[in-house]
């Protein structure tokens, strides 16, 4: 499977007789950020748990930094950072105590803890118990925890929920810094327009299946969604130019992305139209296209009775770290 940071190959998984993942494959290279998108219950968290080694997939393979599936060997050689969807730490500990605890588990110095606390604007609250923290403060602490060990692979589940716009920008700035060091980042989110400028690629999932995968341009092409071009005097041009007539609707030209060069060349070189606005489908439009009109029915397909009680993933990760270290 090569030496991608994350390589997921034909992974399938069931919970009882429910098929949560169906032959999902993708790769994320070092220094790349991938958005993992899908409706509630699409299988995103299950996939993340499989990558983390918390769930063993029934079928398929996962390889991290070129290393195979075995959790203990993976833990020894790959630095993983993880921010779960609902950050749940021990709420009687202070912010500083929590980061110090995770630093000890990950073999990170206390000095790094102090630096991160300041960087994340939590210095004023470091001695306060977590139960006094706001949602955004907990989220910042969770993110600091996830990047403590300068991870090779960072997985973030809804990282910007509860963050104000400034804190979200700070978080994406941090992600950009980590990417420059070669860190591969996978972000599960429903905040599509927020994440769009920060990703190299996206995977869209529904009902446990991969619907689309690629960078924005590849997703635009795969979706068949059209670009829209507007300019003054377009109606006059279209009257003279038969090749553009079929593309003309509601005062604009609508065309496949492959046709863009041809359309623009025609307008500029034959009609001297250099002042035009061109809009391409964004991630939100692409996502809506794939989700179709029955998005609501996906949301309704959650079956609460199947859900096994969730204990804190961080707690489980910590105990696995401890087991590995003590092995
Ligand atoms: N431990 C479990 N036991 C039984 N079913 C489960 C379990 N975990 C997840 N599922 C089911 O698997 C499906 C995928 O769940 P998952 O949490 O991966 O979705 P998701 O895409 O992360 O959703 P969300 O956006 O709501 O977080 C859902 O139908 C869910 O009910």
TrEMBL record:
Family matches, as SMART domains: AAA (SM00382)
Q: Which InterPro entries match?
A: AAA+_ATPase, ABC_transporter-like_ATP-bd, ABC_transporter-like_CS, ABC_Transporter_VariousFunc, P-loop_NTPase
Which is an annotated GO molecular function term of this record? hydrolase activity
Outline the extent of the ABC transporter domain.
Answer: 6-232
Q: Which domain of life is it from?
A: Bacteria
Keyword terms of this UniProt record: ATP-binding, Hydrolase, Nucleotide-binding, Transport
Q: What PANTHER family does the database record attribute to this sequence?
A: ABC TRANSPORTER ATP-BINDING PROTEIN ALBC-RELATED (PTHR42939)
> Under which name does UniProt file this protein?
ABC transporter ATP-binding protein
Source species: Shewanella nanhaiensis
């Amino acid at each position: 499977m090569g030496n991608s940071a994350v390589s997921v190959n034909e992974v399938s998984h069931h919970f009882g007789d429910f098929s949560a993942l169906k032959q999902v494959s993708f790769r994320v290279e070092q220094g790349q950020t991938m958005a993992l998108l899908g409706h509630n219950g699409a299988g995103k968290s299950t996939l993340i748990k499989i990558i983390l080694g918390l769930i063993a997939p029934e079928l398929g393979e996962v390889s991290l930094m070129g290393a195979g599936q075995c959790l203990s060997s993976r833990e020894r050689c790959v630095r993983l950072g993880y921010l779960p969807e609902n950050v749940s730490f021990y709420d009687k500990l202070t912010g500083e105590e929590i980061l110090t605890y995770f630093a000890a588990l990950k073999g990170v110095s206390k000095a790094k803890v102090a630096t991160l606390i300041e960087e994340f604007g939590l210095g004023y609250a470091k001695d306060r118990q977590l139960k006094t923290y706001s949602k955004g403060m907990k989220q910042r602490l969770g993110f600091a925890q996830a990047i403590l060990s300068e991870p090779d692979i960072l997985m973030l589940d809804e990282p910007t929920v509860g963050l104000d716009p400034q804190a979200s920008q700070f978080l994406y700035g941090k992600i950009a810094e980590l990417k420059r060091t070669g860190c591969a980042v996978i972000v599960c989110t429903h905040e599509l327009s927020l994440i769009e400028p920060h990703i190299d690629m996206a995977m869209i999932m529904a009902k446990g299946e991969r619907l689309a995968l690629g960078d924005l341009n590849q997703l635009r092409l795969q979706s068949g969604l059209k670009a829209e071009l507007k300019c003054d005097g377009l109606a006059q041009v279209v009257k003279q130019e038969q090749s553009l007539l079929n593309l003309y609707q509601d005062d604009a030209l609508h065309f496949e992305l492959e046709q863009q060069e041809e359309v623009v060349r025609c307008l500029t070189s034959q009609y001297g139209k250099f002042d035009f606005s061109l809009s391409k489908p964004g991630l939100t439009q692409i996502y809506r296209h794939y989700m179709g009109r029955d998005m609501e029915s996906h949301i309704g397909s959650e079956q609460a009775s199947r859900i096994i009680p969730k204990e804190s993933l961080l707690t489980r990760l910590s105990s696995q770290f401890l087991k590995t270290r003590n092995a």
